[in-house]
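Running this now, will post back.
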Amino acid sequence: MKPISVENSNHNKLVLTSAALIIFCISLTFIFSSIELALKLPLQLITIPIAYIVSNLIVYYFVGKKNLLNSNLISISSIFICFYLISKTYDVSWDGQWYHQDAILKLSENWNPFYASYDVQKSISESDIWIHHYPHASWLVQATIFKLSGSIQATKLLTLLLSFACFGIAYFVLTAKHNFSKIITSLFALCIALNPIAYSQFFSFYVDGQSAMGISIYLLLLYYLLDKPSVFISILLASVFIYFVNIKFTNLVYLSIFNFAFFFWYVIKHPALRLKVFLGFSMLYILAVFVIGYSSYTRNTLEKGHPFYPLMGENNVGEIVGNIHKSVNFFDQNRFQNFIDASFASPVYSRNPDSSKFRMPFTEVGYENYYRTDSEMSGFGARWSELLIITLILLLFVLSSKSYRNKTNFFILISILLF
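Update: finished.
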């Protein structure tokens, strides 16, 4: 197999392989853990070391051995830095301590979601319905980390670790696709990696931050593949898909939308490859959703009639869950109105605030509301409304400029940053 062709400098390949080692290791840990449970085996202490070794073999086979040592130094250093920092903090969030941590503990105690049945009369915990039916990928990886390290708090490291990986992927893709300076590229990559959804959850068991990083990484890899076919990047994309659709139901929806758009864009440009691309995506969905995702998607469909149970399907609680965080005035609005109101509202921490309250941009902000994980109004950050306005103005300026030749690429880049 010919090593991947990276048209940039060696340091760009180094950034890519360092990030790829982290992503492959997380995804393979989930896959191997799922195989163990399917075989009715307990989670093994050696799963993570084996996953890391296999990750190295994949990188070696497709990219080559050059920079592999340095890539390992960077990825291992990132893992230990994240482990140390996160292990020194406590998660004080509601859902983090409730069902996320609960699921990790149950899995580490040999509870097996591939075979265990949900029985209200024989409940294993108060969060039974969630840990039985929600996707298990993040919890499986965290349970394996817990068994290996003995530190339950350290298992929160995945969001921060994926932020490191996201920075590497963003830097690689932006360097390959654009002619920005190293400083500008680094700043762009940092903006993507420090998505407010992610950094607000660095120290909690929540999986929304992981999802934000996964969606960003996935979009970046699809963006790269639009005009730069690569077997290695395609395998990396598949590993991202397998892991992230199995940590949150909505990830499957989002990534499917992106796959649909990519498929039609790609086959228009390369009509001879449409069958090959279609079969590739089909195999990926079968493997990720129905085989590896058996404990949630397949079992939910077989037992409850819907893959997204308990959020959808018969006797679902989706509407109840969806309305927990809504302001009263949101119920009569569409999603666009919700977005505008939430973006330009005063930050509020409440399980059901009476009504969103408009805050004039560039005025005083209640920063004290960001000391906690769940800020329902203006949840993207204290100055999100101001940043949104500035970004949209800059975007209009660039798109109206005749001197900028590749406006399509820049529009995609801004979309990734805003997402």
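The mean pLDDT is 85. More later if anyone needs it.
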